[in-house]
Each structure stands twice: as structure tokens, then as C-alpha cells.
Fold Outer membrane protein assembly factor BamD.
Amino acid sequence: MSGRSSAKKLRIGLASGVVSLALLAGCGAFDSGPEANLEAYSAQQIFELGERKLESGQADDAAVYFGEIERLYPYSEWAKRALIMQAFAYHRDEDYPNSRAAAQRYIDFYPADEDAAYAQYLLALSYYDQIDEIGRDQALTFEALQALRVVIERYPESEYARSAELKFDLAFDHLAAKEMEVGRYYLKRDHFAASVNRFRVVVEDFQTTTHTPEALHRLVEAYLSLGLVEEAQTAGAILGYNYQSTPWYQDSYALLTGQGLEMRSIGDNWLSAIYRQMVRGEWL
């Protein structure tokens, strides 16, 4: 199996770096230990050794070997192939900073190459795959969103654009979930004004996420607690217009009607402006 076919398989499948048994047999003819004198080998031999390390689950060693090609044969075609493989090997090893650095070098050196889209996608993944707990700092989520947007906008016809779009939506939803978590925290402790600020962010900035219906219901709760009846009714009206099939609408309906209030837009506040935009199409 050639380096080009292996790289292609990697790109198409985001892959596992699997190489054929024939390649493994071919690599067995020379020393594969970390202490090997790589200057005695050709760029292709070192590349195949890196692939062998990937196959055996030693992604950290593989990244080192791919890096040696860049050092020993800096302007060769093998060096270009090795750089994208190094970014992948680092990512598999969960060494995200080095994966990101290698991917960025590839983009800088070969911006027009067919693998530039994959390099940008790997760069985005180096942020995205570190998004885990909602309670943690969300700086990585913002970085992931920015890098995924580049994939979507710069490489819209690439095989990675659709995956980037899906991950972008999930990361965006993740940010909204963080706002909701903080908003609920304040609401449970009767810090109603602080909770309103968080839920407002979700409604205004994250309208397309799955958290918007709950945010509107929590606004109904918070505004009623603050005695801001018009705002509570307007939040309920938006729920009734866009999310009537959700349990959050049912909860808000029971809460408002239980106090003799209607779910309708009243007054001139930020929620009534959103209601006019959504229902009446009045954007000015």
C-alpha cells in the first residue's frame, strides 16, 4: 500500500490509519525502535514505519516518525504527506495542542492542497474533542465554533463540511446549555434578575438550539417572581406560538392561567420585540 492510498483512506474515513499486512511485512526489514538511526532510511521507509506504529496503537511514536520526515526531507512530497499524518497521529494520541500545531503548519504551507480541508477539520477537532463537561470553562467551545465555521465556509464542497455543520450545531447547543445551567442555579436560589439575564442570552443568541423552550418557561417563572407580569405573559406568548407541543408550554400555560393571566404579548419590552419579529415579521 502506498503512502498516497493510505492518506486517502485516512481522509475519507477520518480514519484509523490502518495499513495492509503487506506493508507490515515490508517494514519488518529494518529497526523500528525509537533509537533507530532514521538518517539511514529513505523518506518512504520512515513514512511506512510511522504507519506501522499507527496500526500497532503507538500513535505517539508514529507522530515522531512523521515529524522526522519533515526534518530530514523538508521539501519532499513525503514531507507534505507526513505532516498531515503527524497531525492525525497526535490527535489519535489525544495530544491536541501538537495536533493543532501540525494541522496549522499544513494549512500555512499547503493552503491549496487537497488535504487542506482535512487539516482544517483536524484543527477544529482538536478543540471540539476537548468539549466535555458543561460546568467547565467554555473557551474551547468558542474556539471549536470558530474553527468549524472555517471548514464550513472555506471548504463547503469538501467531505468534511457536513460533519463540521453537525458539530457546529452541537457546540452551539453546548454553549446554550451552559447558560441554562447557570440560569437555573440563580433561579433556584431566588436570584431572579441574574437568572433572567442568563435565560435572555439563550432566547436572543441561541434561538435555534433545543434549550429555547425551557429558557422561555424559566423567564415566565422568573418574571412572575419579580412581579413583571407583562414580560411573563409575553414569554408565554412566544412559547405558545413556536413551542406549543413542548411540556414547557404546558407548564407555562398552567402557571399563567392559574394566576388569571393570558399568554399574550403585552407592553414594550425586549420580549415583545422578539414576539413581533417571530409572529408578525416586523424586524424594524
